[in-house]
Amino acid sequence: MTNRMAARMVLLAAGGILGFLAPVAPLSAQAGGNDPEASRLAARAEVLRTVREAQLTLGRRDVQILRGYFLPRALLITVTELDEDRTTQVRSLDELIDSLAAVTVPISERIWDPEVRVDGGVALVWAPYDFYIGGGFSHCGHEAFQLVNTEQGWKLTSIVSTVMRPPDCEIHPDGPPLGTAGSP
Questions:
Q1: Among 107, 116, 113, 96, which residue's Cα sits nearest to residue 139?
Q2: Taking burial as the number of CB atoms within 10 A of a residue's CB, which of 37, 97, 147, 164 is the most buried?
Q3: Can you give the pTM of this predicted structure?
Q4: Nearby residues of 76 by Cβ (< 8 Å), 6 or more positions away
């Protein structure tokens, strides 16, 4: 199996998630003081930071740090819709880590226009994304990140992703990431 094929397997297994540099600190009770709106905005910012940092960690393929952004039994579900075929794949966090450890080519995933919902200790982030592997475009779609707020901060419990190609999905409005071969 080539490095590019292994990287594509990671892509499909992960649904395109990326990791973070360090676990997010727990939501502080002081974040908004007595202002509920400030507390809500602070929680939304922490949730989104967790998702974005996890994406960056995945891109660096730092599996030890990446593991810290998830609950141990987290699931990664990918619904691939290519060439009029639909397949669903459910992976454990350990399966993602194992496949990611074998990848040697650069990977990059970006989300934009995220919708963030927080209700107490439960959060959801919904966003379009695009994914590049080995310097070239691979796929795009939408991702739903589910998180819970633990004593260690916000942790991902699951990521559900669609895997498609244009015109069924869009690439990032800023165009391809720096250092890639371009868009589809």
A1: 107
A2: 147
A3: 0.81
A4: 13, 14, 15, 17, 90, 91, 92, 93, 95, 96, 158, 159, 161
Provide the 8-state DSSP code for 69: T
DSSP string, 76-87: EEEEEEETTEEE
Burial class from Cβ neighbours inside 10 Å (0-12, 13-18, 19+) for residue 77 reads: middle
CA angle 109, 110, 111 (to 5 degrees): 130
Cβ distance 129 to 78 under 8 Å?
A: no
Tens digits of residue pLDDT in 87-141? 999 999 999 999 988 899 999 999 999 999 999 999 999 999 999 999 899 999 9
DSSP secondary structure string for all residues of 143-170: EEEEEEEETTEEEEEEEEEEEB-TTSS-
**Which amino acid, residue 52?**
R
Q: Give the span between the Cα atoms of 81 and 30, in whole angstroms.
A: 44
List the domain boundaries for the chain: 3-163
Backbone φ, ψ for residue 148 (5° rounding) = -130, 150
Classify residue 102 by its DSSP letter. Answer: T
